[in-house]
Amino acid sequence: MFALAALLVAPACSGTRPAPAVRPPVAATTPAKPRAPSTPPPVSAALPVTGAYGWADLAPSNGGWQYESDGAVSRALFGDNPFRPAMVIACMRAEGRVGIAVRGTPPGPRRMEILTETAQRALTAANQPDIDGVAAILAPGDPLLDAMALSKGRFAVAVDGAGMLIVPSWAEVSRVIEDCR
Known about the structure:
The protein has two helices and nine strands, in the order E-E-E-E-E-E-E-H-E-E-H. The protein has a domain at 60-181: Sandwich (Immunoglobulin-like). The protein is 9% helix and 33% strand.
């Protein structure tokens, strides 16, 4: 087995995309309407792709993507802190594999669910204690990667015990996937 720690342990690149601006809340002039719960549904539940409080209706996660490559591994890092990203999609060229890693998960193997506009699949993610997270591996030609890259605006990654990230499908995601093809 190869070292998955390379997914998250990497220097930040110098050309970073600034995180999207977050608008401050506007004071309501009318009584507030009931809202969807701010906590996403449990990962083990079947989540609708769209519709009444499905993942597509939840607020996007804070942060943005940035791309970096050291020749052997290229990475798309998502989050507010490039030195400690919340999620990484990496192409390990020598192994011909694409890894998806999520930081901040409890110890042990976990179920990772990828949700896009056109696809939904559960993966088994292996524990990576050196990065405080888990990682799942896909073949570069896996159609799920195309669904992530081509999803209308965003996709979701949920890990049992760690919640859900709703991330934009920016060009950095596509670039890493194409690096492995």
